[in-house]
Structure formats: structure tokens, C-alpha cells
Amino acid sequence: MATLQIENLTKTFPSHSKGEEPVRAIQGISFEMSGQVFVSVVGPSGCGKSTLLNIVSGVDTPSSGTVAVTQDGKPAVLGYVFQDPRLLPWRTVMQNMLYVSDLPEDEGRENAKRYLEMVGLEGAEGMWPGQLSGGMQQRVGIARAFSVHPDLLLMDEPFSHLDAITARSLREELQTLWEATKKTVLFVTHDVAEAVQLSNRIITLAHGGTVFDDTAIDLPFPRRASDPEFAAQQAEILGRFETMEAERAEATG
Amino acid sequence: MSVASILDRPSIKRNPVGRALTSTWGARITFYVMFLVFWQLLAMNVARVPAPLETFEFIWTELTWGDHPGVRDGEWVEHLSVTFVRFSIGLALGVLAGVIVGIAVGSSRFMRSLLSDVLLVFLALPAIIWAFLTVMWFGLGWKAPVFTVMLSAAPFVAVNISHGVRAVSPELHRMSDAFGVPRNRRFRSLLMPAIAGYLFTGLRFAFIIGWNAVLLAEWFGAANGVGWRSRLWYDGARYEGFVGWVIIFITIIFLVDGLILTPLQNRAFRWRKSGAAGIELVEMDHAGFEEGRAVRGA
Prior knowledge:
The complex is a heterodimer of chains A (253) and B (298). By secondary structure, chain A is an alpha/beta fold. Helices cover 37% and strands 26% of the residues of chain A. Chain A has a domain of 139 residues: Rossmann fold (3-Layer(aba) Sandwich), CATH 3.40.50. Chain A has seven helices and ten strands. In chain A, the strands form two sheets. In chain A, strands 6-7-8-3-9-10 form a six-stranded mixed beta sheet, with helices on both faces. Chain B has 298 residues and is mostly helical. Chain B contains 14 helices and no strands. In chain B, helix 8 packs across helix 9. The radius of gyration of chain B is 24 Å and the shape is globular. Classes of the chains: A alpha/beta (253), B mainly alpha (298). Chains A and B meet through strand 6 of A and helix 10, helix 11 and helix 14 of B.
């Protein structure tokens, strides 16, 4: 079982010019998640969501605090879906899948095919990324992340660059894929509705990089935005955030 | 406007004669015709400029193993193949050295500080200096042309590659980091294709400069080859022979560029033929070309 433990994590970036305060992206975040859960981290832009994900993936290092990703006590395998597809434009879809694969050639192909089928891209193996629409490219990105059999799957606003209709159908596919594979997912988004639709649990960050709210979502899947409980859940999270912002504005005001 | 007349309009462009005259080929042919006229006029008015017809007659005799008056048989195959072997070895060594130095300079700040001035010096040195130096070092023979080609071509490859390495998308590097892609696979699938555009720009310059270099080196430091053959005619004050050989080696540049470099480039950029992802990189490649040209001018 994959476990992510974050304890008292802070990240400070040096200031751009002399005399300026260093930028505190994250100030003391702690939370833990494990098992077959889909956890979303939401918050306004600049609250440290992407920094958090970069540190968890090991691309960036924490200033202080600890981050541990383990799979039954051993270091875990990570998968990553980025905001943009980040495919190699000079490699075909299949070659892009094999680029991240550790399996022997034949097995890697079989495996890649399976995940491409799961995102509805059977037959596109030989195409160049430039021949695919943005939504299809992001599907390859999702298939690629699932294909490495990650213990923990990290997703950084993967639908934010897509049009609303494409994003909607990709969300549904992701939800199906997650139910089929039951991966441990850490999903970052600025869209509360998206978080409510996909997650078991939503962690809200406030400006300045602190955990403000941590809510479990117990609605059954698939969830519909037209469902009153869906709307209530969304309103509740946004409402708490607004109240907090208002109180803070009063305190500093 | 009737439907028929709308449908008619594209047919102007489909008319083969109309298209031929406005095509890039039409423009090229116009250039060659004007050039020939200019050459003919020049030859008629200036001493020691051979006429076009005289020159083409010479080329024909040379290429058909005919006897030139006063000089026995045209041994063009022998000279061309000797030159080609020297040129190919020199170019291969130059490209290899250029790629290694270019990757080092492009990926390490230390190497950049260490080598950027040296590279500039190498770029600024004309091939003729290398031709003299290598003849001085190695004497007459195959070494002078080979090393002249290598030393003249390498810096152009190196500079273009180093620009290419620095232009590789940091996003794709981070993606590769996140998935823990091994170094050798990253080199093959990320770095090399990303710098291919720069590599081809570098190769083109290296090819043209290397070809000039081999001719110069042979002119001064060999007893056979195309360069030597040109000099033979020049020294004999047989200018139609000299100009004839100039035309032969320019033709070779065109042939190799069209038959080898262009198809290779098209193969490497198959992925660009369709879609948005390619456009950005075509522009990047264009920037690389501009940079290469700026460097060439230095």
C-alpha cells in the first residue's frame, strides 16, 4: 500500500532582487494519505500547489520538513501527469509510451497498448503528437502515467489547458480509469467542482501555502454536477474559503 | 459571380505554363539565363575570362575522358574520388569533434567559459590558414587536406550544436526526471532529436566550408585531387580548365545537398509534417539557421 507522509513542509525561494524578502511558497504543510484514495489539493493560484507536487515528485527539494513516499516500506514508483501533455514531438505515440517504460520491448508494447486502449486511443500508436488534438495528447499523457504502474500518481492541473467539453469527458475517463486501477492519486487543481467530482478527499490550501481545510467527500461515483449534494459539497468548501478570506482581510485590514 | 466562374479561378494556378513561370523554378531559370548572358558579355570584353561555351566544351572533354590539346586524358574520376575520400574522412572527424565539443559547451557552464573564446578563434580562422599550417606540419599528401577539412568544419558544427543543446525544452527534461528516464535513452530520444535542426544547419555549413577547405588544401599541398587539378590548369594559364573545374565542384555541392542532406533532413523531420506541435520547432530551427549565419559572418 502506497503512503505519502508530509510533515511540516516548508519551501522558500530566494528573492529575485536584493533587499526583497524571500518568497515563502509553502509554510508548514502536514498531511498523510495512503491506500486507494484520490486526494485533491485545491487553492488559489500562487498558494504553493505546484511547488508541493514538485517536491513530492523529487523534482524540487524542501527547505525544511520531510516528504516520504513509500510502498510497503520501500521507495514508491511515481507517475506524473502535467498541465501540458509534454510528449516528445519527434516520437510516435507508442515511442512516447516506451520512452518511460522499464519493461523489455515486447512487454512494454503490450503494456502501452493496454493503457492507450483504456483512454480510447487504440490505433493511434503510430501517430505523431502533432497529429493529435490537445485532448488526445493529454490522454496519451494520462496513459503514459498509468502505464508505469505507479504506486503514487501525481497530477498537476491536467485539464486546465483544455476546453470545457473536452475536459469534462477526460474527467469522466479518469474517474473510470481510477475505479478500474484504484491507484493512490494526488491531484492538484484550482477548480473546486473538478475536485468534488473526482476525489475522496479535498485539501484546501490558503494563500501563503498553509493547509486551511481538509474534507472527506463521500458521494457515490459517478458524480453529476446537477446532483444537489454535489452542489452543496462544492458550496460548502467555497463558503468556508470565503469566510476565511473575509476574516483575514478584517484582521489585517 | 456564378458558381462556374468561382470554380474556374483556381484553374489559372493549375495551368502548367502559368505555374511554371511563377514558380520558384521559373525564377531560378531566369537567374541562370541572365547569368550566362552576363558571363558571355564579360568574356567578350575582358581578357583571361573564358567564354561559357569554351568552358562547357572543356567540362565535356574532361568528363568523357577526351584528350585536351596539350594535356593527355581527363582523369576526373581519379581526382574526384581521391578528393571525396579526403573530404569525407575530414568531414566525419570534424562533425564528430564538433558534436562532442558542442554538447559539452551547451550543457556545462564551465565548458562554455573555458571554450567559447577558443571556438570564436576557430570560427574566425579562414580555411586557407589551416591549409598553409597543415601543409607546413604534414607536408604534401593526404593529411593536410583531411585535417584542413576537419579543423574548418568542426567549429560550425560545435557552435550550432551548443545552441541546440541550450534550447532543449526544460519541460521535457523535467518530464524525463519525473519518470526517471535513464541517461542514454534521454540522449537518444530527447537530446539528439531536439538538436537535429541545429545539427543539420551545422552540417550544411560544415559541408560547404569543408569542401572549400579540401580544394584549398589540395591546391597548395597535394599532388592529385580536384584542387590540384584546378591548379594544374590555372598554372598553365588555361582558364577554361580552371573555371570548368570550379563549375564541377560547385555542381557537386548542389548534388550532395539535394541527394543526401535534404532527404536526410526530411526523414529526420517526418514528425513536423502535420500539426501544431511542429510549428514552434520549425521556427526554432529557423532561429538556429539565422544564428548559424550570423556565426558564419563572424
